[in-house]
Amino acid sequence: MNHPKPRTRIQQKNTEAILEAALDVFSQYGFRGSTLDQIAQAAELSKPNLLYYFPSKEAIHATLLAGLLDTWLDPLRAMDPTGEPVEEILAYVRRKLEMSRDFPRESRLFANEILQGAPRIKDALEGELKNLVDEKSVLIARWSAEGRIITVNPHHLIFSIWSLTQHYADFDVQVHAVLGEDSEAPFAEAERYLVTLFTRLLTP
């Protein structure tokens, strides 16, 4: 049985440089608006050198998306069925906001893919993502039925959390335009606001 040769340090470094550069380019221009030339220039590699590592723009994009989906689902996976319901949902809000703060390019990459009809991750959305959201929606519905949170549509609650947290990454330019170019990062105040909002919404 043939095993692939381990990558050399240079190969690993160049692969990482390409993916990092592609994340910058794709998150700024979207898949359709991005080119291999842009990615190669951002990675400080020649285009033929880039093509040694990835055969196409599609291959680079698919590699980024494959790694992203797991990262995207982890905050929801961490919602603990044995925890205090309001605190578990607030912890999810905080984790999603932290992702917008720490991974804004990844958020925009994901948003761009969705806006294009999710051609490269639709199966994952209809499979792994849907299954996880359905599982946590059953949990939230149980908390509602037990009177531990208000009666709420679980799916739409999750959608609301997504929209209110990912906004700070996907619409970063708009947020800073409204708050002022010299304003500090808005995440501390956003967290206070969202925690207050969802605490009041969910508490019976």
TrEMBL record:
SUPFAM superfamilies: Homeodomain-like, Tetracyclin repressor-like, C-terminal domain. GO terms for molecular function: DNA-binding transcription factor activity; transcription cis-regulatory region binding. PROSITE patterns: HTH_TETR_2. Keywords: DNA-binding. GO terms for biological process: negative regulation of DNA-templated transcription. It comes from the Bacteria. This is TetR/AcrR family transcriptional regulator. It comes from Actibacterium naphthalenivorans.
